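Protocol step 4 of 5: obtain the predicted structure for the target chain.
Materials: sequence only (see below). No template structures provided, no constraints applied. The aim of this step is simply to have a reference model before the mutagenesis design in step 5. Sequence pasted as it appears in the construct record:
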Amino acid sequence: MVRPKNCRVVSSNLKEIHFKPQGIPLRDLAEEVLTLDEVESLRLADLDGLYHEKAAEQMGISRATFGRIVQSARHKVADALINGKAIRVAGGVVKLEGLRLFHCLDCENRWKKPFGTGRPESCPSCNSQNFMRVDNLSQNGIDPNKTRGFKK
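Step 4 output (structure tokens):
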């Protein structure tokens, strides 16, 4: 009997999404499914450039398990790119952890809230409801590096 998978810590709150080759309807494509922990492993190893040991620590798993997850994810992405398949991100045994960053557009205040606590009702500094998540800033034409109080 196979042992159940341990819950992996993921700091990205991705909903189910698809990536596909342009010009071909999704229904006509074969599909590769990347789990949320596989996407997180790609983010940590390839985007953030972390060593496997540090990335595994962040996900709450062993280094060897991290290596297997990232290898599986890379294989699926390569297969989809080379063979013209769609990629669907969904599923996995994960626990969302980490902080979301918010930015008030009225007073320039920035604050953090943990995942899973819901959207704040207002800015804790000025009680304004004119705020957004920091990861949404660049999508709305605001350079997060040029706003007052932003620290990397």
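Step 4 remarks: The longest strand covers residues 99-104. Residues 136-152 have pLDDT under 50 and may be disordered.
Proceed to step 5.
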